[in-house]
Amino acid sequence: MKFNTDEIASVLREEIGRFESRIDVREVGRVLEVGDGIARVWGLSGVMAGEMVEFPGGITGLAFNLEENSVGVIILGDYLKVTEGDEVRSTGKLLSVPVGDAVIGRVLDPLGNPLDGKGPVVTDLRRPVETLAPGVAERQPVREPLQTGIKAIDAMTPVGRGQRELIIGDRKTGKTAIGIDAIINQKNSGVKCFYVAVGQKDSSVAVAIDTLRKYGAMDYTTVIVSGASTAAPLQYIAPYSGTAMAEHFMYNGQHALIVYDDLSKQATAYRQLSLLMRRPPGREAYPGDVFYAHSRLLERSAKLSKEKGGGSLTSLPIIETLEGEVSAYIPTNVISITDGQIYLQPDLFFAGQRPAMNAGISVSRVGGAAQTKAMKKVAGGLRLDLASFRELEAFAQLGTDLDAATQQRLDRGYRMVELLKQGQFAPMDTVDQVMSIYAGTRGHLDDVKREDVADWEKGFLTFVRDQIPELRRRIDESKELDAEGERQLEAAIAEYKRQRATKGSDSRQLAGAR
Amino acid sequence: MSSSTTSQTPARHAAGHGTGVDIGVERLAKVYAQAIIAAADKAGCRGQVLEELAGIVHDVLPKAPAAAGVFASPRITPEEKSAVIDRIFSGKLAPTTLNSLHVLARHERLGILPQVAAAAARLADEMEGLSQATITTAVPLDPAEQSRIVGEVEAAVGKRLAPTFVISPELIGGLVVRVADTVYDQSVATSLVRLRDRLKQRSIHEIQYGRDRLGTP
Fold first, then answer.
1. Is the same domain home to B107 and B204?
2. Average pLDDT score over residue span A310-322
3. In the list A3, A376, A478, B110, which could disulfide-bond A371, CB 3.0-4.6 Å?
């Protein structure tokens, strides 16, 4: 490839022609001490809180603490390159990140610098990292569903567009898997997805990115990575910069989904910063404003009013608990901020129920408003039924004789639990979900063996897809299950059961003949 | 500006512009400086007190390094320090200056006398509406040029200045004026850096927006 040298020379000439001696005015300070991602600066007397400052070598910082004689600055970048005595200059700007279509499909750091080796992010669009959440007049109630593709969630704790649904649980209970599945399921929904990895092992982030790529989700997803080895300031701002990128789509009338994985690590990073800055520690040594740090972040998820374009930003924050301790400081904070939580339990996880969601204490405060009519019809009461089943199950373990009605409820419960199990990276279509849950809640599975439920479901869905596509189309188009639809569904189940029985007896006969 | 300001400047600027600043000490020094200036104003001898303090810090202490050690040492009791002060300075200083030294001694703060003197000088300048200014050039300037530059800068920023002149060949040419925390930079070195950054930016821009335009197929 040969470069057109004339072009380059003309650019140079033009630049030198414009090389007028303009006075460079800047407000400066000097680094007094630096360490652990923060710097104390002497001078900068006119700097504003939250203003971006610049160290030599293009490293940026944020004015974090304004004190009588000095300014505490958090360093966003390699703080080992900043030394005592360095000149710090204020920029008069707020921290911003690139936004828009250029960031889609990229892996970025919290400042918007590419980490995926695919070259710079080419865009002129930028958005400040910290912005005010939309006010009450700019919002409208959450109504539209955001399908996660996970039966248990879409049926029992539905998530609406603009909702904040917390995913909470111990380590290794499948929290990230739910976030990733929800992203994968947005494939044809036009929802832009953002996965913010804060304080995660780089190896797990690599696995997540690889999974997203494998399932074609990177076409509409941006991954913002601030791994466990990056400095605390970057971990602290990562969720805010991810939100800024997602908000761009919300304010342009589109829909976005953001997964914060996870906010407990961000709170830890913020605690580190605050303690280094000598802000007074509060409960569990977190600073007094750690609640505000999360509330102002999650308030930015919203469903905008029609005048504002009707865009939405849905968030799925993740919180890791220790030994199921939901009453610790950060979990209670985030539970109270969000519009519901999906609670994952290790014992359910190890008992093979995946997603390991505890139906009893998982809720969605937006609830049925964000469900399609069909789903509302088949899944209403499912959550409470399952919760009472769990109680009954504990009681039944005492070994007492059970009356027929109780036994029947237990059997139904066991089958529903089986039905709600779902593999990872296998999000399910809403229509399929409606049909399987209908079969379960209406007792059509009561005569199927527990271990055959998954197989029955798979076969049934294939049967409907292949042999009665008009039923699927009907539910898909009207989004509801009217009397006629219900009648067709009943007929389909009956027909499938008949075919399954004959197939079963055929194979038995074959086995006998042999 | 006046000859007295120029003679004091190295110490004053050491506080703000050098490294190794102890914020705690600076804060403390400011408190003492405020008190000393208030007391001096009451006695009507601010100029004299400031000059004497500066004299002690710049002329007396450097000639007797042991004295600084005595002042800073916690092993010598405040009473002994007061006695030393009396023996050396009694009758030679204004009563306010002498009392200030005694107060510092009694509070075990004689060690921060240089910072107190600098803070007092800064405070006095501030009260008179003078701003600290450092004017850096690549080559030495003659006094006529210096006063012309100061005059022009004063007119431009609208403040009276207490200037210090520094020579730094790294600037290559031009002038850097620092008033308090604001830097007005017109040096050749900075302009070159800016030009380099702009060229780089421009090239990146060109390459990205017209990848095929720059390369011939």
1. no
2. 96
3. A376
Q: Please give the residue of chain A at the shortest CA–CA distance from B200.
A: A12
Using CA atoms, how far residue A210 sits from A103, A113, A218, in Å, is 18, 20, 9
Give the architecture (CATH level 2) of A379-513. Up-down Bundle (1.20)
User: At which of B105, B126, B147 does a domain end?
Assistant: B126
- Least CA distance to A71: which residue of chain B? B23
pLDDT value, residue A259: 98
Please give the CATH architecture assigned to the domain spanning A28-93.
Answer: Beta Barrel (2.40)
pLDDT at residue A24 tops 70: yes
- Considering the domain architecture, whether residues B116 and B13 belong to the same structural domain is answered as yes
One domain for residues B169 and B91: no
Determine what percent of chain B is predicted with pLDDT higher than 90.
24
Provide long-range contacts, Cβ within 8 A and 24+ apart, for A204-209.
A204/A176, A208/A176, A208/A180, A209/A107
Phi/psi of residue B189, each to 5°?
Answer: -60, -50
Q: How many Cβ atoms are within 10 Å of A320's Cβ, its own excluded?
A: 21
Measured between beta carbons, the chain A residues lying within 8 angstroms of B181 are 27-29, 43-46
* B13 and B84 both lie in a single domain: yes
Mutation for testing the A interface, residue in B171, B175, B182, B186 having most A CBs under 10 Å: B182
What's domain A98-371's architecture? Answer: 3-Layer(aba) Sandwich (3.40)
Q: Which of B83, B109, B126 is the last residue of a domain?
A: B126
Report whether the peptide linkage leading into residue A347 is cis, meaning its omega lies within 30 degrees of zero: no
Q: What is the ipTM of this complex?
A: 0.71
Total-model pTM: 0.86
pLDDT tens, B96-151? 999 999 999 999 888 899 999 999 998 998 888 888 888 999 999 899 999 998 99
Distance CA A448, CA A93 (A): 65
